[in-house]
Amino acid sequence: MARGSLDETLNHLWLADLGFVKMNFMRICARRSEEIRRLLNGYINVVENKKIGQNEPGANLSVREVSWNILLIKQSNFRQSFLLTSHFLFLFRRLNMDFIDLRSDTVTKPTPEMREAMAEAEVGDDVYMDDPTVNQLQEKAAEMLGKEDALFVPSGTMGNLLALLVHCQRGDEVIVGDKSHIYLNEAGGMSALGGIHPRPVKNQADGTLALEDILAAIQSEDVHHTITRLICLENTQNVCGGVVLSAEYTQAVGKIARENNLSLHIDGARIFNAAAVLGISVKELVEPADSVMFCLSKGLVAPVGSMLVGTKKFINRARHLRKMLGGGMRQAGVLAAAGLISLEKMSTRLGQDHARAKSLFEGLKQVQGLRLDAGPTSSNMVYFDLLDEVKLSVDQIIEEMKKRGVLVDWAGPRRFRLVTHYWVDDAGVSKTLKAFAEVLG
Ligand SMILES: Cc1ncc(COP(=O)(O)O)c(C=O)c1O
Questions:
Q1: CATH superfamily of this structure's domain 349-440
Q2: 156: CA distance to ligand 1 center in Å?
Q3: What is the Å distance from ligand 1's center to 159 Cα?
Q4: Ligand 1 atom 7, closest CA
Q5: For a Cys-Cys bond, which of 63, 108, 346, 418 suits 102, CB 3.0-4.6 Å?
Q6: Which ranges in 263-349 belong to alpha helices (H)?
Q7: Ligand 1 centre and the CA of 182: distance in Å?
Q8: pTM for this prediction
Q9: Helix (H/G/I), strand (E/B), else coil: 240
């Protein structure tokens, strides 16, 4: 029996006491969303199968976290207290999590299944390539993306940096979008650590780099010029609105790269979101790319980690550089175990996040004082600006939303970005729309 499993928990508790717990669970769940209620019902059924009495609770429940998977539950006029393990803790966490957090999909916490897999993971020293769970994750990632090999890295930023360091020498030039994460938000790592020169090309509103702009940015052979080595695309393109680049467009850029003896790297932090929108496999979408980085720690819900994929030779060199940058993680199987669930289960449910982003988009169109970005949002992001008529500042709006249990973040002096993810359900969308209507109404 799995450690911390529900059955084990039940075996360790006084059955009569569980009747009391059940009643309280029911009370709490009645106030919460449909999804939580459904989850909770699963647990209550298990309790009922054990034929537990219906003790009516008489006073307040107090809950204290003893450790990461143990809760101490007390009722003030009740003699017993209860120790509940991971599954119940998860439920309490969800029930007590009043905030709807739309600041990013990076805020996603691991699911109970992930926590259990992490606790049970077989591990070894990954610097010796001895960690079976990391090895399994890398094999799975390489297979899903249709590349020879893969490397587990601590962050998307490190994955992108490693790709640039492997593809380029000092003084080489990289064509990047002027709104790309690599160019804007990775602390200039390519220049600071690799001596690599970025050549920014305008990101169009649809997230693409115009093919003629890419061609024009490739340096001709001249003693005065840097040497162009690499083109980077970002899919989905975050700052342009979480928009999706098509497989046809990616093929066209791949063709330019091949014809000019360049490599193509995709910052695919959210490539699984892109593939879900397009209704194709990630493998098909990234076929022309020499290397791809994607994040497990965003919409795929894992707590930590990203993957870099490419040829065996490319990954061998990236592994060496990862060590140089201090990214060799030893018993990283505890993290990879969550990543496997990301690939196996979370990658297939992203359509739900996209549908909720669409609901947010449609609902926010009805709120006065906002100008939504043109066109329906493509994946899990909704961007909008405040009209001049709105006298509140973004900081004041953030504060007012927080008071109403919704966390949002700014994306500019008068601009917001909301991101849907696993922990935002339909009730969360409604709560957000209601809060915006109140704050701006
Ligand atoms: C498009 C894109 N690429 C790369 C990254 C970097 O990922 P990490 O935060 O894991 O370094 C992010 C992070 O938000 C991102 O949005």
A1: Aspartate Aminotransferase, domain 1 (3.90.1150.10)
A2: 5
A3: 9
A4: 156
A5: 418
A6: 271-278, 282-285, 312-324, 333-344
A7: 8
A8: 0.81
A9: coil
Confidence (pLDDT) at 20: 42
Residue nearest to atom 14 of ligand 1 (CA): 106
Q: Read off the amino acid at residue 84.
A: L
Q: What is the pLDDT of residue 9?
A: 42
CATH 3.90.1150.10 segments of the chain: 349-440
- pLDDT at 262 > cutoff 70: yes
Determine the pLDDT at residue 30. Answer: 34
152 Cα–ligand 1 center, Å: 15
CATH of 112-347, one of 1.10.530.10, 3.40.50.2300, 3.40.640.10, 3.40.1350.10: 3.40.640.10
Nearest CA to ligand 1 atom 8: 156
Which atom from ligand 1 is nearest to the alpha carbon of 234?
1
pLDDT band at 182 (very low <50, low <70, confident <90, very high): very high
Residues of the chain with CATH 3.40.640.10: 112-347
Which ligand 1 atom sits closest to the C-alpha of 159?
11
- Residue-wise pLDDT for 29-88, tens only, equals 333 333 433 443 443 333 333 332 334 332 344 444 454 444 444 444 444 444 444 444
Going from the Cα of 335 to the center of ligand 1, the distance in angstroms, rounded, reads: 18
- Is 156 close to ligand 1, i.e. is its CB under 6 Å away? yes
Render pLDDT for 122-136 as a digit per residue (tens, 0 to 9). 999 999 999 999 999
